[in-house]
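User: Hey, my collaborator sent me this sequence without any context and asked if I could get a structure. I don't really work with proteins. Can you help?
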Amino acid sequence: MLEASITEVQQVQNSRSLAAFGVRAQLSNPLVDPGPVSIRRGQNTVEVVWAGESFPKPAGFAEQILRSVVGWARKDAERFPSSSRSRANLALALLKVGQVDEAALELQAALEIDPADYIAGLTLARIHANRGSIQAAESLFQRLIVDRPDDPNLLLGLSLLLIQRNDYAGAEDLLKRAAAANEHLSSAQFLLGVVRLRSGNVPSAINALKTASRTDIRNPALHHTLGVAYAMIEDSPRAERAFRTALSLAPHSASSLRALCMALLDQERPEEALGILKPHLESDPADTDARELLWRSYFDLKKYSLARGQIRQIIHDLGEGIAVKRKSRLVADLAATFGAEGQWKEAEAGCWKAIEIDSRASTTPY
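Assistant: No problem. I've predicted the 3D structure and written it out in structure-token form, which is a compact way to encode the shape of the chain:
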């Protein structure tokens, strides 16, 4: 199953920042779950079936088994040096013991013997993608897809490369083809939803994400992304439900927790947000994004002194590493708490200080 970890969407239709939602638009692990290695007898003694890209380093008894597999595959490649399948099998075995460089060489050798070798081409393309060699990976995917135009692995792999190049139209076309080729491929619908979010087509994104959720019901990233989509159209009740589902599946997800609290605050329920944020910050006091939501909760509850305390804590925790824009905004937020209490002199001084920190800062909300 495709893992999707989705990066921050900058601004959306109403220019509202979604940083606190933890939205990600670039998929960092674009390949399938590696799962266990399996071995089956094949044309040339043994075939190692590998389905992933993490190249984990095995330990203990598992390491002994895998090294035995490498030994068998190496002997097979020596016995059949002109067999692309033997070379590819050896490469797959090498990947399972973490020897990526040697595996890449064996895959290249397999492709020199047979340029159309699917396993060798697909695996080498994935290695190139993991290493950031986007052009080399794309070239391999394009070459393979000529003979297999409906292959979901190729369509998904190539679409992820297009996403990295911000070619969302091209990625959407490939993902629609992948979904049409396999209607149960939830990962294609999931990525289709992500691409449509980045393109601003939120209703279509929601449709794709809901379709994916029917078969991939226990994927927290999917429910989180669906919550983000609802938040983008300001449907806070549905966003809340989606974030609660995501959090129930991944209880330690700080991004889903923050997103849920933002949805609660958007529904004018600061007490509930406060009840979630305070325990979270006790266990993770360095989460400044959550602390910003805590200051907003106190502000909405008219507990302005407590709100100011949170802002000062954030500025202290971030220290010299704080971004100018963020510091200006925090100082302006501090001014807002004074303004809410009618302390206009302090509020005005805070607004001027925010402008001094960042000349592009706007005092309009204050």
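In plain terms: Strands lie at 38-40, 47-49. You can pass these tokens on to your collaborator as they are.
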